[in-house]
Amino acid sequence: METKILTVDNTDPQLNKAIFTEAAKVINTGGLVAFPTETVYGLGANALDGTAVKKIYEAKGRPSDNPLIAHISDIKQLDALVKDISPVAQKLMKAFWPGPLTLVFMKKDIIPKETSGGLDTVAIRFPENRTAQQFITACGVPIAAPSANTSGKPSPTRASHVEFDLNGKIDMIIDGGSCEFGLESTIVDVSGDTPCLLRPGSITLEMLKEIAPDITVDKVVLGRLNDGERPKAPGMKYTHYSPDASVTIIRGSVEKTVAEINSLLEEHKAEKCGVIATEETKDGYNTKNVLVIGTRKHPETIAANLFKMLRKCDFYGYETVFVEGFPESELGLAIMNRLKKAAGYSIIELDK
Ligand code: TXA
Ligand code: MG
Fold this sequence. Notes:
Elements: E1 4-7, H1 13-28, E2 33-35, E3 42-46, H2 50-60, E4 69-71, E5 82-83, H3 87-96, E6 101-107, H4 113-116, E7 121-125, H5 130-139, E8 143-144, H6 159-166, E9 172-175, E10 186-189, E11 196-199, H7 205-211, E12 216-217, E13 246-251, H8 254-267, E14 273-277, E15 290-292, H9 299-315, E16 320-324, H10 331-342, E17 347-349
The site of magnesium ion has 3 residues, from loops.
C-alpha cells in the first residue's frame, strides 16, 4: 500500500480543508490515518468500527489485549460512549480538557471490543492540538489511536518518525510538525470510587492532586512490577521505547553523574557508546558521541526531545548508551517512567 503524506499549512485554510476532507474519507471507509497531537503522533481509525481498528494492531504489531484511546473533539461526544461520569471525572475534565489527559470510564456497548481490548472500560482523550481537533471533527466519529510507532519503539513526535516505522503499512500521514509536549498523555482511571494514575505525563501528579487530593498511583508508574503483578493499563507491562542499544541510566548530583559516565565510557571503550546529556553537562564528557536532550532548568525541553533522542541512538548505531537520570517529582516522574522502560530498569543510583 502507498502511504500518502499530506502537510498542513495553517496559513492556507483552503488547503487544510481539502486535507481533512480527504483524511475523513479514508477513516469513513475503514482506513488508517496518522495525525499529530500535542503529545505524540497517533495512528487513527474509526473507534466504532472493529474491523478498521483491527488494522491498527496489524500495522503496529501490537498485542491485541492492549486497548486503545478513543479521541474526541467535542465534550458532547462523551455521553454516547461512556457510562457513569463521576463528579471527580467532571472536575478533571473541566480543569484539563482539551489537553494531554486521558480518562478511563465504564464503556457503553457502542465501543467495540477491538477498541477496548475486551475490557468493560474505555479510555477517552480530548486533545487540544488544532490539527487533531480539525481531523476528528471532519471524520464525525471518535478516533481510536495508539501512538503511531511500531510496537516497542519510541513514540513518534514528528511525521518523519511515523514514516520511518509505518510507511507502506497505513493509508495516510497528516504532517503537522513536531509535537509540543513529546510524552504520551497522563492516564487517570475514573471508573472506580477513587481516581488512580495509570500512566504519568505532562499533566503531573501534583497538578492532579489539586483537583483530586485522594488520587492513588498504580505501582507500575514508579518501577518494575514483581512477577505475577499486573498494571491497570495493560500497555504499561510491555517493554517500550527501546532503542537497539543497551541503555543504562546514571542518577546523582551533576558532578558525580559526569564522572561516573566518563569512567563507564573508559570501561566500555571497545563498544560504540553514546551519552544522552543535558545543556549543563554536555561539555564534560570524554567522547564526541553526546546527544543533548534539553536543559535541567526546563524539564519540558527534556520531555519534548526524549523520544527523538532515543531514535537518534539507533540512527547513529550506538551499541551502549548512558543517559543521565532526573529527580522523580513533577514532570520528572513521567520522564523517568519512560527512561526506565527504555533502559529495561537498568539504573545506577550514585547518591544512595
Ligand atoms: O498521548 C497519548 O495518549 C497518545 C496520543 C496519540 O493520544 N496515545 C497513546 O496511546 O499513547 P497508546 O496506545 O500508545 O497508549 C495507551 C495506553 C496503553 O498503555 C493502554 O494499555 C492504556 O492506555 N489503556 C487504554 N485503554 C485502557 C483502559 N480501558 N483501561 C486501562 N488502560 C487503558
Ligand atoms: Mg504507545
